[in-house]
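Worked Example 4.2. Read the sequence first, then its structure tokens.
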Amino acid sequence: MEIKIKKLRPGAVIPVRGSEYAAGYDLYACLENSVVIEPHTTVKIGTGLAIAVPEGYFGAVFARSGMAAKQGLRPANCVGVCDSDYRGEYIVALHNDTDTRRTVENGDRIAQLVILPFMAADFVQTDELDDTSRGSGGFGSTGK
């Protein structure tokens, strides 16, 4: 699949996969100056990129596992959803889950982008739903 990408600022880095079979493409910080993220706060970090995701797909922005586990930094909304009609800059709201200040430098890998398909749905209101063995059993109702 070919996806068009536009650099909005000098120094923006085109996303790349960390390995041949990686699902995610690393997103890089595009900053004029380093940014400090105070403990338990969120800062928006620009990538300097606009991406034209094809219709029928969306860009899902996930945490980089190493950054989350080792530095306590993750996308504030856990998974960002970038719709196919969005043409603005991809910005990652990074949250610091630790009690220590963290610094993000220009060119740091800050998240990963996975291109995923989705199904558009038309919701139809009804008075009845079909029965299932689980029924309306909620959290923990399956005993697992």
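Now turn to a second chain, presented in exactly the same format:
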Amino acid sequence: MSGGLVALLDDVAAMARIAAASVDDIAAGSARAGAKAAGVIIDDAAVTPQYVTGVKPARELPMIWRIARGSLINKLLIILPALLVLSTFLPQALTPLLMLGGAYLSYEGAHKVWEKLRGQHAERTEEPTQLKGKEAEDSVVRGAITTDFILSCEIMVISLNEVAAESLFARAMILIVVAIGITALVYGAVALIVKMDDVGLALTKRDSPGSQKLGHGLVAAMPRVLDGLAFIGTFAMLWVGGHILLVGLADLSVTLPYDLVHALEAPLTGIAVVGGLLAWLVNTLCSMILGFLIGSLVLGVISLTPLGSKGH
């Protein structure tokens, strides 16, 4: 009896070790996958606050929650099952699909750069939702969730590509962790951003001169924070999109662009201490340039179509 109990305990311990290793693998895979999607995450956080511009303060957080819930539904109930099926039965489609996403990111980044160079700015045609009631709020939320679907596809495809060699169960678990973690990160950050000016205003009404100074500083800083996020997001999209295209072309046996970048990196890798960083910077810069060139090409093609004539 005791021997059977010892054997059972050994089995339980072995299963616990396997489970712990699986958790570690999933955590590591999730971190790796999430890092690869950084450019899209930053852009998502930069884009979303515009949807609650002009909204009554009391409705900002409820709207952000509705958009976050829609984003989670996009990722977990629509995108995740489709990607798992695709990665299982048609894995060769992942590279072209990923490159299509890379081209889209490059297009978005190039579009924003050209807008800035031409002195153009995207104009919101919608009136503030507080002027048009619940139907307008619902419309804005639907539009935000639709835009989020595109960004969520990119996040999930990039993440899946990073862990494509894992088992089906591991892929599913990693993508679930990435979906929940990134959604919480993005929309938690968005909630903080859109409420920060309210915090600042509240501080300006306190008696303490220090609180008032901090409050005025927060109110003044928020537009710059949003501009900074948009700036970083634009170049992150060009970098991520360009790198996806660079690696994807090499995977499809078009190796010349990747070989050129590697040739530029190679002399730097041997430099003590900073060699790895310098090589990474060169790769990043080349990826951004490629992303901008491909994105500009896509932008030019789209501008010749009826879709382009209606604006972005």
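Notes for the reader: The longest helix spans residues 209-251. Confidence is low (pLDDT under 50) at residues 12-22, 123-128.
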